[in-house]
Write a structure and sequence with these properties.
This protein has 82 residues and is of the alpha+beta class. Helix content is 39%, strand content 12%. It has one domain. A hairpin with a 6-residue loop joins strand 1 and strand 2. The longest helix has 20 residues, at 31-50.
């Protein structure tokens, strides 16, 4: 797949942000923004599905699924206005 090195347009950036947040697509955005949104939404959904790993249960013929969790260190940024 060819890669193009260009900046995203305003509506493509909005579509990418919406896809990452899980927000709905705005029909006022361009066809290029629709492609960005659908591509990212699909990739994110596929990645979430991969987060489940199959582990064997007590019976060898049955598989149970459990989510793979990652711990994320939470930081809080404080801003001061002078």
């Amino acid at each position: 797949m060819p890669q193009h090195n260009r900046s995203l347009t305003h509506d493509e950036t909005k579509a990418a942000d919406a896809a990452f947040r899980g927000a709905p697509f705005n029909p006022k955005w361009s066809d290029a923004a629709r492609k960005v949104y659908l591509g990212l939404s699909t990739a994110i959904a596929d990645k979430r599905n991969e987060a489940f790993e199959e582990i064997p249960s007590s019976q060898p013929s049955t598989l149970a699924k459990r989510p793979v969790t990652e711990t994320k260190e939470k930081t809080r940024v404080k801003s001061f206005f002078w």
